[in-house]
Design a protein that fits this description.
This protein has two domains: 208 residues, Rossmann fold (3-Layer(aba) Sandwich); 116 residues, Rossmann fold, CATH 3.40.50.460. The longest helix has 22 residues. By secondary structure, it is of the alpha/beta class. The strands form two sheets. The chain has an eight-stranded mixed beta sheet, with helices on both faces. The chain is elongated and about 70 Å long. The chain has eleven helices and twelve strands. It binds adenosine-5'-diphosphate. The site of adenosine-5'-diphosphate has 17 residues, from α4. Adenosine-5'-diphosphate binds next to α4.
């Protein structure tokens, strides 16, 4: 087992300063899995430091579930998470692991975890990660707490997921820049943003970026409706427009929509921008850093209190626990109808 940072083992010499209810937990394994999200590092830092503060050792599992299968474990001390709170991505790396979807794969992973002396896990990821965590915990009776880390903000049981705020701000920055060029050339831009099943980024970034229309996976928008909206704008002297399209929207993506709209708007130069993976990167916002810190801290506290198979989340600015099964099985619909109504008014 290597140390991420060999500078000092002194990080682990902190005396346990809190009472521990679950004396069985001596070593926690922490990993990031599935899609990466800005703020995952701040969360790892919080898990590591809260554990060490509480007298619990921490092992970082690299590349998510793949790391359990490959025994890709690293010793973490308090200094191994120095200077990562501001970094995007995840120092523990992330991966998608097909083997873990089989019972044999999970059995092998569990054996490796046990051999490494890990007696509880903190899983940072989305609903796929939680599905794997729930199975592992139930099949092998190991305590697990999940932390919602995904830019999509699509998990039930939490108002916000780690990374969503940063991704939304990244999109807004891009929209602002696109608006400069759109206005200069009298262009109509279709900007496609991430969100296969969730329109959260599209809706919020669209409102904050002053978009003329927003197309979402959760809401069917007929192309005729969109054209009517754009025509209204053109007749009231709008010379440029930006339409935000969530990638999971049902009309077939930004290029398709642009093609269908093109005939109607000969006077507009129509352009398409797919923002793509840049939405996953970047330094996390203060909101995501604080959220990640709170949830990482709460996850370790929950394990110490004897909780398992729960997701820590935030609701009405309070940290709360939801059964991980409930978080997976309930589809989260976070789109506020009142925002859609408001959007229509403000974009005239
Ligand atoms: P996310 O956590 O962002 O939703 P994925 O859906 O890719 O990302 O899931 C991450 C990993 O979780 C997968 O690569 C796999 O190893 C594990 N996983 C996902 N679904 C299952 C499942 N049904 N059973 C076991 N493991 C799963």
């Amino acid at each position: 087992m290597n140390s991420i940072n060999n500078r000092s083992e002194a990080g682990n010499t902190f005396k346990a300063r809190t009472h521990r209810n679950n004396e069985n937990i001596k070593k926690i394994g922490v990993f990031t899995s599935g899609g990466d999200a800005p703020g995952m590092n701040a969360c790892v830092r919080a898990v590591v430091r809260t554990s060490i503060y509480s007298g619990i050792e921490v092992v970082g599992i690299r590349h998510g579930y793949q790391g359990m299968i490959d025994k890709n474990f690293i010793h973490m001390d308090a200094r191994s998470v120095c200077h990562i709170i501001q970094q995007g991505g995840t120092i523990l790396k992330t991966a998608r692991c097909v083997d873990f979807k089989t019972k044999e794969g999970r059995a092998f992973a569990f054996k490796n975890i046990k051999d490494a002396g890990i007696d509880a896990l903190v899983a940072i990821g989305g609903d796929g990660t939680f599905t794997g965590a729930e199975l592992l915990s139930r099949e092998f009776d190991i305590p697990i707490i999940g932390i919602p880390g995904t830019i999509d903000n699509d998990l039930f049981g939490t108002d916000y997921t780690i990374g969503y705020d940063t991704a939304t701000n990244t999109v807004i920055e891009a929209i602002d820049k696109i608006r400069d060029t759109a206005a200069s050339h009298d262009r109509l831009f279709f900007v496609e943003v991430m969100g296969r099943d969730s329109g959260c980024i599209a809706l919020h970034a669209g409102i904050a970026g002053g978009a003329e229309a927003i197309l979402l996976p959760e809401k069917d928008t007929a192309i005729d409706e969109l054209i009517a909206k754009l025509e209204e704008g053109a007749t009231s002297n709008k010379t440029s427009s930006i339409v935000i399209i969530a990638e999971g929207e049902k009309n077939g993506g930004a290029y398709n929509i642009a093609r269908r709209v093109k005939d109607k708007f000969g006077f507009y130069d129509i352009k398409v921008t797919i923002l793509g993976h840049l939405q996953r990167g970047g330094s996390p916002t203060s909101f995501d850093r604080v959220l990640a810190s709170r949830l990482g801290y709460a996850a370790v506290k929950a394990l110490i209190a004897g909780e398992s198979r729960k997701m820590v989340g935030i609701q009405a600015n309070k940290v709360c626990l939801t059964d991980i099964e409930e978080a997976i099985n309930n589809h989260s619909i976070k789109l506020e109808d009142d925002l859609l109504v408001m959007m229509d008014v403000l974009s005239i």
